[in-house]
Amino acid sequence: MSDTTQYPIIIPRDLHQVSRKYISDNALKVLYRLNKSGYDAYLVGGGVRDMLLGIEPKDFDIATNATPEQIKALFRNCRLIGRRFRLAHIVFGRDIIEVATFRGHHDSSDDKQKQCKKISKQSADGMLLRDNIYGSIDEDAERRDFTINALYYNVADFNIYDFADGVKDIEARKIKLIGDPETRYREDPVRMLRAVRFATKLDMTISEETAAPIKPMSSLLGNIPPARMFEEFLKLFISGDAVANFDMLREYDLFKYLFPQLEQALLAEDNETLLAFVRLAMANTDERINQNLRVTPAFLLAAFLWYPLSRQVTQLRQNSQLTPQDAFFSVLHEVMSEQQRSIAIPKRFQAPMKDIWILQDKLQRRDGKRAYKTLEHPKFRAGYDLLLLRGEIEGGEVEQLAKWWTDFQDASPELGQMMIKSLPNARNPRRSVRKRRKPRKTSAKSE
Ligand code: ATP
Ligand code: MG
Predict the structure, then answer these.
(1) Residue bearing the CA closest to ligand 1, atom 21
(2) 142 lines ligand 1 (CB under 6 A)
């Protein structure tokens, strides 16, 4: 910011492309009702930023000087949420408009700060644990993360209010933190992940000062509650930009705080296959999202952890007397609980992840009625998709197995029967399974 510039910079309506045409009816309703009731009401954040960039905004965030209680009094369909950040959600069926009260400063030593212990809290290392001090619009702008996210569109006069040279940075395509980068990362380390996400999503570069502290401070991400990390995982990997985010997160040493087991496996000597595999899984997910097809996070999560899991199963089987099944389930639980320490995967995704993994074994057993049973498994499709990816990367038997299933799904009943009958060991399936088991070593009893 130059010394002579007066903030906010005001961009009048005829000089910008933010228009009510592009703002959702629900967001406009909320803005107008707040405004008509005598409050200031601004569209802020991604909505304004994306419209200036000519991108369709994902959602619309609103900032106001009305307190959460005052907002609640205005809207019957209002829910107050959040502890760390108290917010109002105005609910229109599936569409939710987020309304935040202007936030104020923390770092003053005045009386307001002392009175506000309950509404604001910082940890010993500077992380904001609670942030519910309300303030003016310019204080609110300073509390936002990046300059491009601190642009306010006012429904009262249709001007954009730019408090931190955001428009200039949009033009220069720069991701720049507001204020001192180290302090801002310490307050909230998730801003490191957000810097990467905006850089890939908006095709921008992270400015030098904003990029420099990321690697040295990356370990602060270890303090973020796993539930919040799951939300960030979704935004980074189930967004259509997974491959780009993966590359940039690894470049900044951030990926290991999301997926430590995968990162460790990627650093192991023979990592090329694994790297190709996770890239392919992400590319498929990106493609589906960009074609507006449905995706489940369970698939990508299962793919990310598949090789760490199967490598450990192999190791455990070499070093113990466990049956293949016991070894598999023991490792499955271990891998899953280790992952939960970084990212809290909700139960509704854990169950299908396990199914997808278990199916990798089931898909091998095709004799008798087994293939038909597996075909009816509720997660067959996802399990088969993972097998296809593995086949593409591993080739050999896995590729042939995937091909078998591709043909089997399309086969007539007669052809299907023939495919099963012509499997090796098809006549006596039970015995053939037993035969495959490793003979027990009697000498290792004491282990
Ligand atoms: P998108 O919704 O496209 O992912 P966004 O910028 O709208 O991007 P949100 O997470 O919806 O991101 O947040 C809305 C706004 O709230 C941001 O633009 C920013 O101004 C502010 N904000 C969000 N998270 C933080 C944070 N961790 N620190 C400071 N400000 C934040
Ligand atoms: Mg948003």
Answers:
(1) 144
(2) no
